[in-house]
Amino acid sequence: MPSPVVLITGALTGIGRAAAVSFAKAGNRVVVSGRKPDAGEALVRELRSFGAEAEFVQADVRKEDDVRRLVDRTVERFGRLDIAVNNAGTEGKPGPITEQTAESYSATFDTNVLGVLLSMKHEARVMQGQRSGTIINISSTYGHEGAAGAPIYVGSKHAVEGITKSVALELAKSGIRVNAVAPGPTDTGMLTRFTGTPENKAALTATVPMARLGLSEEIANAVVFIASEGASYITGHVLHVDGGKSH
Fold it and tell me: How far is CA 151 from CA 88, 94, 101, 242, in A?
């Protein structure tokens, strides 16, 4: 039986990149997507060095034509789509509510919410035809908690979790599982930008019961698990991978 085909958006850095490496090392066929062709092609070379079949497709998840083409190219190349990881996201512009604008709202929600919605639309289109597949959306601890100074980012991740649960109910009888993985503070470039200063990052780390930041590879391991047959009876679930922060 051919190895599963995995599609990852926002795959060029952080958690998305770590997930691509984990899936490739496990022998899956992997399509990685992002907006920077040079980084995408470099990642594909690395994934192929592990013996995996891999392709890069440039796409901006805010644009439906790009998302449609991404999914169609995946099926053209490998014949199917088994696992989709919707990781593309942005921290937006953190700051108090009095400083937020329609533009800062759109800049965050267009990627974090519309991007997930469009990705799921086209992934489900293919998976419904197969009567099989699994979709994993990347949320955050802030998808089910609040955070002072980040109302738009927090709102976007709450939306991701609500959409995940709703689409899981819609697709359950089609043989498609839909879940989310919600990382806690993870040592990525996004976290560095989100916190702004080393002092803020240290303060956030201190709120984690395990008293450390997560690693992208640890989040990737959870993504690979919930995509696997070992999680075959799990759908509509938000898996917290956060060092005990959600308790």
Answer: 19, 8, 11, 20
Residue 247 lies in a domain: no
- The answer to whether position 121 is within a domain reads yes
For 145-160, give the secondary structure using H, E and C. Answer: CCCCCCHHHHHHHHHH
pLDDT digits (tens, 9 = 90+) for 164-185: 999 999 999 999 999 999 999 9
Q: How many CB atoms lie within 10 A of CB 156?
A: 28
Q: Position of tokens 């644009």?
A: 63
Question: Does residue 80 lie in a domain region?
Answer: yes
pLDDT digits (tens, 9 = 90+) for 1-31: 789 999 999 999 999 999 999 999 999 999 9
Strands across the sheet with 176-183, in order? 54-58, 29-34, 5-9, 83-86, 133-138, 176-183, 238-241
Altogether, the residues listed in the chain come to a count of 247
| 142-147 contacts, C-beta under 8 A, 24 or more apart | 143/180, 143/182, 143/238, 144/182, 144/238, 144/246, 145/245, 145/246
Q: Out of 105, 142, 153, 233, which one is annotated catalytic?
A: 153
Q: Answer yes or no: is 246 within a domain.
A: no
- CA nearest to 243, candidates 204, 200, 190, 195: 204
- In CATH, what number is assigned to the domain containing residue 26? 3.40.50.720
Tell me, yes or no, if the pTM score tops 0.90: yes
Residue with tokens 């993504």: 223
Q: How many domains does the chain have?
A: 1
- Whether 153 is a known active-site residue: answer yes
Structural domain boundaries, residue 60: 5-241
Angle in degrees, CA 165, 234, 230, rounded to 5: 150
CA pair distance 146, 113, nearest whole angstrom: 17
